[in-house]
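note to self: the first set is below, dont mix up w the second
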Amino acid sequence: MRRLTAKEFDASVFDLVQVVVDSETALPEDLRTPYDNDYTKQQASEALITAADSLAGSIAAEVVADVDKRASIVPCEPSGPTDAACYQSFVASFGRRAFRRPLSDEEKTGFDRFLQFAEDEGDFWIAVDSALRAFLQHPSFLYRIELGVPVEGEDGVFRLTDFELAARLSYLLIGSTTPDWLLDDTEGGKLATIDGVRAAADEMLESARAKSQIARFHAMWLGYEKIPLAADLAADLQKETGALLERVVFEQNAPWVDMLRSTETYLTSDLATHYGLDQPSGAEGWVSYADSGRQGLLSQGSFLSAVAKFDDTSPTQRGLLIRTRLFCQEFSLPDASLMVNVDEPPAGPDPNACKELRYNMWETDGCKMCHSMLEPVGFGLENYDTAGRYRETELNRPDCTISGEGKLEGVGSFSGPSELANMLIDDGGVDACIAQQLLRYTLGRYEMSDYEKNLLDRLVPIAQNGGELRFKDLLIELVSSDTFRHRRLEAAK
């Protein structure tokens, strides 16, 4: 059982009843690891029950009060308060959409009890209101229940039903409930074959919803989901990164590492001024980086703003971001005796020294084994502030000139995002990490089994096809894999 995230809940509600909700503050917090859909972090609670009840009530009330909204979900004109045939038609059609599968006869009968409310009040829409409240807080709506059916001869392995598979596909690719066309295809048996799954995925990936969903996955993965800058600037930065992502992944189906090697970027006039780059030919458009030293995603303000700390850049956090999100390396917490107060800026030997002397954990005994892989990477990006602007001296320290020299341990030295991006590409580890990050998001958990690691070993070469990994190809191969179409019994904890 995987509870809908707040974003998935909101999108599903809108697709079902055209009501806009923002449940992020109402539902229990979606803990990020870095993704918001890690079911191992989800807990059933009274807070969830209370919030779901309150949200369901307000949504149902808005729908029933709006003639157009209620007409969109009730496929008939009721003849009176006790029109059972019309009501049951609504329950069957809406229930199929809300539960992402046809209702059982027992479930349909259970909803019949609300007809008594309509009779008592003399109002057909009382029954619809009550049914909507029940649907929108029902476990089959709030949770993606993936039980499957046992696979003969494979202990602990279950093939997802076609409707479970359709829902898994839909929430991965468009971030919302199974659309009507896919429910129809599923009911017609089209998802029973691998070719059918691939065809459905291809169709979804043509939609604007898929572009938005994949952009959100990247934002969570690479840390820029919420940009901590002024709203207008943050919107321009999101547009810049979104345009690059759409070009590489969708328009060109190019290797994902083109996100790192792009020699031009999409700018508004204000953002060009912000960066000190040439103005676009119109109000906004593609602009060459020329000889600025910038290149691809690593030089965009969205990425560079991701791990700001103490109102400034953090070489440690930037190095950690590169290592964990693009190399998929893991770092364990140090021994308690070596722990420092991370809520205070590092002081180093001299708290008044320039940053390269204060951030010295990478040279400190007991710490340097990990930190030698972090700060030297961050130092190579120090010429770019938390909003992506180029600078030559530290924040509020004109006496501290930034060298901009960095080092990727075991690979080589670099200066700036262009040289770092090329090193990451040449190293060759990014493709495998992309696949690992996508699989974590798809599975809804951080930890992976040996079976899933073996899947990655097979997927990456296929998506590379003798060259470099293409993200859409990776997605298609993933959703048509046995791992995606099955579940394996997890050990009790």
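second set (the one i keep forgetting abt)
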Amino acid sequence: MLKKIIFSILLILILQHGFSQGHRTKPVSVIFDSDIGPDYDDVGAITILHVLQDKGDAKILATVASNSYEGIAAILNIFNTYYHTPNIPIGVPTGAAVNLKDSQHWTDTLIAKYPHTIKRNSDVPDAVEVYRKILSEQPDNSVTVITVGFLTNIANLLNTSGDKYSPLTGKDLVKRKVKLLVSMAGGFPSFREYNIFNDTKSSITALENWPTPVIYSGFEIGSKIKTGLPLVLNTTITNDPAKDVFKICIPMSAQDSEGRMSWDETAVLVGVLGHEPYFNLHPGKIKINSEGKNDWDETAKGQYYLEQKGDPKKVQDLINDLMMQQPKN
């Protein structure tokens, strides 16, 4: 009898949470928000997000840019097309936004080499319009937003009023539809991090006013996890946009000789698969000053930053494995 009871409990847990990372009962609905371009860990992030979608762990609702350089919409479309999902909605900020392109010129290489139907940023709507449309169509408390770039779109979304998609304000729409925000932003407990300080005003508005739980993958997490080199060295993988990017970029910096630091990939990993078994969550809430430096309020509630649990190489190996898996036919 005891064995039957234990088995029944285990079965319920499996049905509710999935037995392992590869066996979820329902995919996580994701809006992916990236500055894809200035750095190339975004490439690893969108790659593993698509692989996780192929595995049934994720459902990509939209890929939006928080950066406005000409060609960023095409880059997002290239990765969506490569993974046989060319119609995933794309948005780009049309108002004031950071405009930073890659210094290694990998974006130009991909645009010249890989198929894409979106040629210019003007071919797609504003990122906030995409957010409002997509969110309005989703069940309540069902969407995970993963941001691995500037917080421009998030701030602009929170500041919106009702429109043709929903009568709700941006903040109320988020509160109703979004269950979790996972953000590669900040460093903990205190740091001045790239994504936050490049648009400090938006960062303050977004992260101090977001109405649902937030998990931060801070600078210190990704800096210990080096990925991309196994993909570059894999001789059986050809005509792969992620491989091309890492092959171009890794030799350009001595600090990347063992692979690129994986800030953005860790945010995707946690957003889709959860923080266990690799991380602990440290509760509190972020505080950002006018110069873009963040601190942590231990007395507040509703937000968390990741703390590494165990050997970061285990996360590194997982990300490298996911990056080498090719699109599902």
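remember for set 2: Residues 155 and 202 are 5 Å apart (CA to CA).
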